[in-house]
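Much of what follows relies on a compact textual record of a protein's fold. With that in mind, consider the following protein and its fold in token form.
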Amino acid sequence: MRTTKIEIDIKLIVPNRWNPNVQSKEIFEKGVKSVETFGMLSCPLVRETAGCYEIIDGEHRWRYCKKLEHKTIWVENLGEISDQEAKTLTILLNNLRGKDDIEKRAKILKKLNEGQLQLLPFTKEEIKNELELVNFDFSQYEKEDKIPERVITNNLIFPLTEEERKVWDLAFKRIKEKNSKVTEIQIFLTMLKEYLWITWGVDIEQVKKEDQEKLSTPTT
């Protein structure tokens, strides 16, 4: 297939009916800001149908331009192709872009300023999590200590976003490379202790000791 790059009236473009790619309001606004800042760096892909141009790939880019009140837009036109070909291309182009290596991406994020970070399609919490991963001291897990026997009495379950899970998996993988015997719960508890100390200055071991002393002190 070959395309022709053309500039057309933005009103002549329509979205397709099957696009599975969705965005949150926050990510949409970031997309608008990115086009406003850098311009549209890649054109939507369209086909000709029923006197208009139907989007195959790039619906969000088109919507950013509409939000910015652009009168015209550059597109890559495939001409007339079948519905099956159009649907196949939509799915292919949505899913053939690969995925970032989180650790490498985090190192890049660390070098960006606040304004640049705000343009990226991530929430503040996701960016914060990745930056903390870069700064985390993995050396504390290098020693192959003997793992104490544990008696399981409780289960702790909490929800994670896909990005949060990726950060956790990468951290766990890095730590296991340093110490193959360490467990997920040891890593979690160590991170929790560090978070309490760094954020609020709470020494959990000292709190446990004080609570134990209170329990052992007879009441009058």
Observations:
- The CA atoms of residues 145 and 181 lie 8 Å apart.
